[in-house]
Amino acid sequence: MIIWVLYDIENDRARTKVAKVCKQAGLYRVQFSCFLGTLDAYEKDILELKLKALIAEDRDKVYIFPMNKSELQSTVLLGQAFDKKMVTDEIMALFF
Predict the structure, then answer these.
(1) In this structure, is the dihedral angle defined by the CA atoms of residues 88, 17, 54 and 85, taken in order, positive or negative?
(2) By the 8 A CB rule, do 6 and 60 touch?
(3) Domains contained in the chain, CATH given
């Protein structure tokens, strides 16, 4: 399944660790606090557990959105939706 991870994390160290965990899970950074990629259900569950252990649940926010390819292809992207320096051809291919 296609996974979006978006977050708002106060602590710099925790935010850096969350980004590292997302990258290690095989997700691609599309904005500073937004990752996108494909994971199976087990990988998504592992990612969720790892991220939960890193954040302060009383202050931080993490969103994990699963979607299928047709839902992703119907996503509306406005303006500079992706940071072109961060987005790979592999990610852009998901939209077509």
Answers:
(1) negative
(2) no
(3) 2-70+77-94 (3.30.70.240)
pLDDT the model gives residue 30: 87
DSSP readout, 35-96? EEEE--HHHHHHHHHHHHHHS-TTT-EEEEEEE-HHHHHT----SS-S-TTT--HHHHHHT-
What predicted TM-score, i.e. pTM, was given to this entire model? 0.84
Token code pair at residue 34: 């937004």
Helices 41-54 and 12-24: crossing angle in degrees, nearest 10, is: 170
For the cut 90, the answer to whether the pLDDT of residue 35 exceeds it is yes
Whether the predicted pLDDT of 79 surpasses 80: no
Residue 79 φ/ψ, nearest 5 degrees: 60, -140
